[in-house]
Structure formats: C-alpha cells, structure tokens
Amino acid sequence: MQLNHKLSSNSYFIIGLLTIVLLSASVCHVEKKAIPSTKIETIEKKIEVLSASGSAIPSIAVNKDDILGVWHPKDENFNIEIFKAADEYHGKIVWLKDPKGEDGGAKLDKLNPQKNLREKPVLGLVAVKGFEFNDIDKIWEDGYIYNPMTGQSLKGAFSMVDNNTLELTGFLGFSLSEVKIIWKRM
After folding, report:
1. Which of 47, 51, 55, 158 could be joined to 140 by an S-S link, Cβ 3.0–4.6 Å?
2. Residue 162 is part of a domain; what is its CATH number?
3. What are phi and psi of 79, to 5 degrees?
4. Are 23 and 79 part of one and the same domain?
5. Confidence class of residue 32 from pLDDT cuts 50, 70 and 90?
6. What's the predicted TM-score (pTM) here?
7. What is the rounded distance in angstroms from the CA atom of residue 147 to the CA atom of residue 127?
C-alpha cells in the first residue's frame, strides 16, 4: 500500500522505535523468553522524552484551520494574520510597531534581497507563504517565512503548542542550524 502523506523525521523515528519494540516482543515470544524489564523501561523513557519534548503527537486536538488568525512572533515588532487560500496557509503583516519609514512615509521593505521589491510597503506584505497541513503529524509544513526586518527567509513548519501558541521551527538557507520562534495569538 502506498501512502500519499508526508511524514516528518520524528514520525519515522517513532514508527521505527515501535517496529523495534514489536519485533523484540515477537522474537522473545517465539523463544518463550520475557522481555527484560530494563529494556521495557528504556523504551518507555524514550517514548516519554519524545512526548515531553513535543516531538511526538501534540497534546491538544489540532485541526487544520486552528492556525487562522492574528499572531505575534516573539521579539518582533509586527503581527501577522494567517489566512487560507485553497489548501495553503499564508500570512500578511497587519500591524507594525513603527509603521513609518525614516522619511515619514510608509515603512518599505528596504532589506529585501530582491531589489525590485524594496520599494513595497511592509504593512500588508505577505510574509508567510505556502504552508500545508500535515494531518498525520498535525503540523503546517513546507512553507516559507520572510522577515522584512532582517531580509531573511526561513523554510519551516508550525506546530500548535496550545490554542494560543504556535512554535515555528525554521531553517535558514541550506544551514543545518534550527531556529525556534514562539508566536502568540493576538
């Protein structure tokens, strides 16, 4: 059977871990041996760690449209409204702490790496693009976030921590370094 769902690396890890547990149990059953309690405790601890870190299944019920609304990324001077277009989620900047540029006009996207976009206003800019909901992992993934305050873009995924908190896990360029940013519902 072929699945058309995308799985995260955490999902593959959990599936692999459960497969090992099941195979170990079946081998021990065939050989009429009991699984040593130390192995069971080790496996239970690994599953606990995954669950506590939020890497496994979310502790709250998550629906695909729960991400809709206005959000404030921690330590930023703007709010973003997440909206849905077709089956993708996007977000536009709907509030700026300092909406005026140095000349008194609208603040412009001066740090955009694409020169032809540097004269566009930051307010109203679509800065979150192309996220799709993964119904298995209950995350929004495969999208991009652009920060006009730095001119940088991240490829990332959002997970719902609670009804009023999102966690963005992003990757800058081809870097292996991971960035985590908390977003609060406004």
Report:
1. 158
2. 2.40.128.520
3. -120, 150
4. no
5. very low
6. 0.68
7. 7
